[in-house]
Amino acid sequence: MSNKCNQPNMDRRKMIGGAIAATGAMTIAPGVILHAASVSEEASTGADSKHRWGMLIDSNKCAEGCSACVDACNSEHGLEGHDRPATDAVWIRPVKLKDKQTGHENRLVMMCQHCEHPPCVDVCPTTASFKRADGIVLVDRHRCIGCRYCMMACPYKARSFIHETLTDQSVNAPRGKGCVESCTLCVHRIDEGVMQTACQEACSKEGHNAILFGDLNDPQSEISKTLISNNSVQIRADLELNTGVRYLNL
Amino acid sequence: MRSSLISNSTLLILLAALLAPAMQVAAESQFVTENSKAASMKSCVAPTDQMRRNHMDYLKHGRDDTVRDGKRGIEYSLSECIECHASKSPQGQSVPVNDEGEFCQTCHSYVAVSPPCFQCHRTTPDADGGSAKLGHHSGDSNPHQGLDIQLPAGIQRD
């Protein structure tokens, strides 16, 4: 957008500015930079590969008829539907599994599994799909061209495409027409140091506690301790994607 | 020779005297929209001439830092632009920054550019969302009080 070669020499400007100051406009010189320093102090250090964020979902605790996590996700990220279930944005969705022989039913929530080897990243032609240093798989909408190749590549059907022009998006999740999106593991919360996703918060508020979020790299975290002592599974483990989202009692 | 020197310096002084008021007016005139937070501030996060010329580069750099590296609270952030530069209507409603005559739109239309920022980013300050009110659906005044928030090893929360 801005080609530096075509720009006039900024030093000339400084000289003109100096001329203004010298000719009596001293009042504009002091206090020019007001709060630049105070803003940059708040800057967080960013994603760190020391952590790997993940989730553990207990299928037995996921209650029939409950949609607390879906509602919380929608309100957190400003997702609104158009009564078109085939194309509306869904970042987290309840799924029912039935064993046809025994009739036993399982309920779980499905979202982006934040794979260690994400197929969506492999296929993205513009590197819009990427994995952060801390294992969160995201779409960089500045680069997404809306080709939807990642939607085809994802074995979990975790991604949505935005079909309509949007206004008044949440600052938590800037989003617009023509981009693909999926669960961000509430990355805006993690970056602010709030170690709880919106879905987990809603689930525990409902008293179900089916969702556990935490650091898979930290052996002292609750999620790591639960994973050591329980028999968890990855969905489609045969693909060897090493998902960050795991399931209990499935 | 001497007379030409005098006339030269006299001319320079005269020129400076003429230009001074004009430049001062140009430097102090209001480029921000009225009724916005920015109107009450002396300057942006960098000197105005730098912001005018380079804000797009600052934002472009900052967006990669934030989206791809997770650095929040950066110096040049689009949500901060909107926070400060969105004006308020007489009814107290925030006016979108890309509305006719508003801060972003006026200049962008003057220089005939149409940056796609607002295809995805909201154009008014987010009154009921954002990091300041995480977990806003809980309805508490302090949404994190009483929550069992798990901090990763090595991170201290103040």
Order of helices and strands of chain B: HHHHH
Please tell me how large the radius of gyration of chain B is: 23 Å
- Count of distinct strands of chain A: 10
Helix content of chain B: 40-55%
Number of helical stretches of at least 4 residues of chain A:
8
- Estimate what percentage of residues of chain A fall within beta strands: 15-25%
- In terms of quaternary structure, the protein is heterodimer
Structural class of chain A: alpha+beta
What characteristic shape of chain A results from the CA principal axes? globular
Number of helices of chain B: 5
End-to-end separation of chain A in angstroms reads: 52 Å
Q: Mind describing the biggest β-sheet of chain A?
A: 4 strands, mixed
Keywords, separated by commas or semicolons:
heterodimer; A: 250 residues; alpha+beta; four-stranded mixed sheet; 10 strands; 16% strand; B: 158 residues; mainly alpha; 5 helices; extended
Verbal overview:
The complex is a heterodimer of chains A (250) and B (158). Helices cover 24% and strands 16% of the residues of chain A. Chain A is α+β, with helices and mostly antiparallel strands and 250 residues long. Chain A has a four-stranded mixed sheet. In chain A, α3 runs antiparallel to α7. Chain A is globular and about 70 Å long. The model of chain A is unreliable at 23-42 (pLDDT under 50). Chain B is built from five helices and no strands. Chain B starts with a helix and ends in a 38-residue tail after the last helix. Residues 24-29 and 131-158 of chain B have low confidence and may be disordered. At the A-B interface, α1, α2, α3, α6 and α7 of A face α1 and α2 of B.
Quick synopsis:
With 250 residues, chain A is an alpha+beta fold. In chain A, 24% of the residues lie in helices and 16% in strands.
Q: How are the SSEs ordered, and which strands pair?
A:
The complex is a heterodimer of chains A (250) and B (158).
Chain A: H1 10-22, H2 36-41, E1 53-58, H3 68-77, E2 92-98, E3 105-111, H4 119-123, E4 129-131, E5 137-139, H5 149-153, E6 160-161, E7 180-181, H6 187-191, H7 198-205, E8 211-215, H8 222-229, E9 232-233, E10 245-248
Parallel strand pairs in A: 1-10
Antiparallel strand pairs in A: 1-8, 2-3, 4-5, 6-7, 9-10
Chain B: H1 2-28, H2 48-69, H3 78-85, H4 103-110, H5 117-120
